[in-house]
Specification:
Bound molecules: cytidine-5'-triphosphate, the ligand C[C@](O)(CO)[C@H](O)COP(=O)(O)O
Strand content: 15-25%
CATH class: Alpha Beta
Number of domains: 1
CATH topology: Spore Coat Polysaccharide Biosynthesis Protein SpsA, Chain A
CATH superfamily: Spore Coat Polysaccharide Biosynthesis Protein SpsA, Chain A
Number of strands: 12
Structural class: alpha/beta
Shape: globular
Order of helices and strands: EEEHEHEHEHEEEEEHHEH
Helix content: 25-40%
Radius of gyration: 18 Å
């Protein structure tokens, strides 16, 4: 029998880099909030049984309104997010309890996620315990090094080996829970946090291979003000296609 699959929408951030009064997931793009675009993708995915939303403190009532008005029946919980992305993930794991399931942790601010990626992630979790979504880098990437007048180009990395992580990042619940329990027990974790959930698994459960599913250039993370315009354009192009 297939496992229950839970989509976790991480929407607990404040959107400091976008710099608006509202968290960016509550900003409207192409006629609806970014949060609602992401909700719609998970609600419409036949592989997803349940959705848990992590929302910025002070905005859970708005999230509930969006969920109720949009009729997103798979949403089982709206939980307050933590002070960092990893804290929000941990809160989501606590809200899920201990019964084994597949967990797909998604940045709510990636509203252009394609259903194909969810399908492939859920399929991959039948044979793998951890799955990431990634794309190759089309830019050359190097390590910046301190130089005489500021930063200079340090080591140029082998681009053929480089990938850019996206979301959803997907795990058996027992795996991601164990990784987080070890991270939270490590006094050094707070001072050197991971920038994504795969980073937590890689550091604390290195014996678990993280299988890769191909992401998409469209699956952008709305991070800076220009990304709102890019997302709008991508939705427009999709509607015209
Ligand atoms: N405490 C946090 C911080 C981030 N996130 C979520 O993680 C995703 C990726 O984070 P990011 O793009 O960094 O969002 P913000 O933290 O809101 O942005 P910023 O860093 O510019 O403040 C977003 O969907 C965001 O809402 C979260 O659930 N809880
Ligand atoms: C999880 C992530 O989207 C993978 O690329 C990224 O690490 C999130 O970074 P952010 O600084 O929290 O936006």
């Amino acid at each position: 029998m297939d496992s229950r699959s839970v989509g976790v929408l991480l929407a607990g951030g404040v959107g400091q880099r976008v710099g608006l009064a509202l968290p960016k997931q509550l900003v409207e793009v192409a006629g609806r909030t970014i949060l609602e675009h992401s909700l719609a993708v998970f609600e419409g995915a036949p592989e997803i049984d349940e959705i848990v939303v992590l929302m910025t403190p002070g905005h859970t009532a708005r999230a509930r309104e969006i969920v109720e008005r949009g009729g997103y029946r798979k949403v089982s919980k709206i939980v307050e997010g933590g002070a960092s992305r990893t804290e929000s993930t941990w809160r989501a794991l606590q809200a899920l309890g201990t019964e084994e399931c597949d967990v797909l942790l998604h940045d709510a601010v990636r509203p252009l996620l394609e259903p194909r990626i969810i399908t492939e992630c859920v399929a991959a979790l039948r044979t793998h315990r951890a799955v990431n979504v990634a794309i190759p880098s089309s830019d050359t990437v190097f390590v910046a090094a301190p130089g005489p007048g500021g930063e200079v180009v340090g080591e140029v990395l082998d681009r053929a080996l480089l990938r850019r992580s996206q979301t959803p990042q997907c795990f058996k619940l027992s795996v991601i829970r164990e990784a987080y329990e070890r991270a939270l027990a490590d006094p050094e974790f707070a001072g050197r946090p991971a920038t994504d959930d795969c980073g937590v698994v890689l550091r604390y459960l290195p014996e678990v291979p993280i299988h890769l599913v191909a992401g998409s250039e469209r699956n952008i993370k709305v991070t800076h003000p220009a990304d709102l315009r890019i997302a709008e354009l991508l939705f427009k192009l999709a509607a015209e296609a």
